[in-house]
Amino acid sequence: MAQEDVKLDPEEEAFGYLLLKDALTQEEEQKLEVFQHEYRRKKADLFLKKFIHPLLSNAEITGWGSVGSPKWFHRTARLSALSSNGAFKGSSYDYPLTTSSRFLHYTTPQTLLSILREASIRLYDLNHMDDPKEFVFGAKDFGFTGNYYLKEARSKLFSFSMVEIDEDGDAEDFNLWQYGANGNGVAIVFSIDPSTQHEWGNYHLGRVQYSTRVPEHFDGLADKIRKFGQAENFQVRDFENLFVKLAAFHKSEIFEFEKEVRLLHYHEHDLFPLPRTDKRWPLDLSLDVGRNGQRSFFDRIYIGKAWESRYRLPSQIDPNGTANRLIPRLKIEKVIMGYRLNPKYVGDLCDSIHQLAHEKLGETFELKPSRFFEHFNRPHQGED
Fold first, then answer.
1. Better pLDDT: 43 or 287
2. Which of 126, 361, 150 is nearest to 260 (CA)?
3. Which of 155, 183, 201, 222 has the fewest CB atoms within 10 Å around its CB?
4. Is the pLDDT confidence value at 1 over 50?
């Protein structure tokens, strides 16, 4: 590359003669590499300070990916910064989890029995949520354009939806029983071990943030980052992947009644070609079919005694036995029986729940009727 074709950044001028030289000695190559790494570190720190720290003040650059010509690699990078939940600590995306925190998950009796039978909860990818606009809200500001890129981003985000409640677990919301088979279902009360929260790897717990438009920090974010790249001679490739988790915690205000707390897992799943087709399939995920017949993929978090066995690694790999600290530990504290469940069959259902919980989880929990049960099952005036 001829010198007159290159415009050097002020911070490149100290080693610009090496960039523009056709052939370098071994000593010069080593000197150039030192300059390049320092240049890239400074630019990445500036990017972090300008775009990420206003949102997540504890975030740090944890990985690099080099892109482009070896001689000019310092001008382009793929950055990793948000894999540890510690990056979210103290931010608006970080739920202040304590030992008394409790969460409700409304569902059907059949799903509860499946949770117990499989000793796990399912986190479904965002492509298959009930809200057809899931993740679309503000997506362009985050840098996602076009249906293909939106679908690809959502396919890596797996969510389990809950509602925060008081420690006694009695603060049911009548309107949210629509997600519990309109009162014919159950509401599962979960606790989550807070002691490892900021060690989780690619798991994040936060309140969904509702608004009419995306927050100020995200307004035109994609354009701001591109302009930053031009001004600083430092392009952050695939920058939208840095913000994909944050985008999953934003929804339109029309869903504010849900008061959702979301347990999110970012899963960079592997896609493998299917035989005799041009489609690709994530072999490291499980398959389900949604209510509308659409294919969906889900990930799992094991609970009860299965959490202990599934997430324990051999001692030669994990000598300190700390690998399971990367995975959230949920516990069923209580199950609230829906107010429309037929009283004649509730006893049998309770027996099944207790039996499966003892067998599969190695623990049991309280079963209690909904606080709306008496209202809906009170004899009508004139009845015996």
1. 43
2. 126
3. 201
4. no
Q: Tell me 173's DSSP state.
A: -
Strand-strand pairing, 209-211 and 250-252:
parallel
Residue 162's H or E segment, with its range, is strand 157-165
Tracing tokens 């986190």 back to the chain, one arrives at 123
CA nearest neighbour of 64 among 199, 231, 236: 236
Q: At residue 216, what is the residue type?
A: E
Structure tokens at 174: 């009548």
CA distances (Å), 28 to each of 10, 20, 76, 101, in order?
Answer: 20, 12, 21, 58
**First-to-last C-alpha distance (Å) of the chain:** 95
Distance between CA atoms of 359 and 356, rounded to whole angstroms? 5
Instruction: State the Cα–Cα distance between residues 87 and 61, nearest whole angstrom.
Output: 10
Beta partners for 201?
Answer: 84
Could you read off the pLDDT of 40-75 as tens digits, one per residue?
A: 899 999 999 999 999 999 999 888 777 667 777 788
Please tell me whether residue 331 adopts helix, strand or coil conformation.
strand
Tokens of 203: 């798991």
Q: Please write the tens of the pLDDT for every residue from 78-131.
A: 888 888 999 999 999 999 999 999 999 999 999 999 999 999 999 998 887 766
Contact yes or no for 180/335 (Cβ under 8 A) = no
* Other C-beta atoms lying within 10 Å of the C-beta of residue 292: 8
Nearest to 10 by CA among 226, 233, 236, 227: 233
306-349 pLDDT, tens digit each: 999 989 887 778 888 788 899 999 999 999 999 999 999 999 99
Structure tokens of 376? 């809906």
- The pTM score is 0.87
Q: How far apart are CA 322 and CA 324, in angstroms?
A: 5
Cα 40 from Cα 205, distance rounded (Å)? 32
Q: Which residues pair with 252 in a beta bridge?
A: 211
pLDDT in tens, 154-185: 888 999 999 998 765 567 899 999 999 999 99
Question: How long, in residues, is the chain?
Answer: 384
- Name residue 367's amino acid: L
Give CA–CA dist 130/176, Å, rounded. Answer: 14
Token digits for 215? Answer: 């927050």
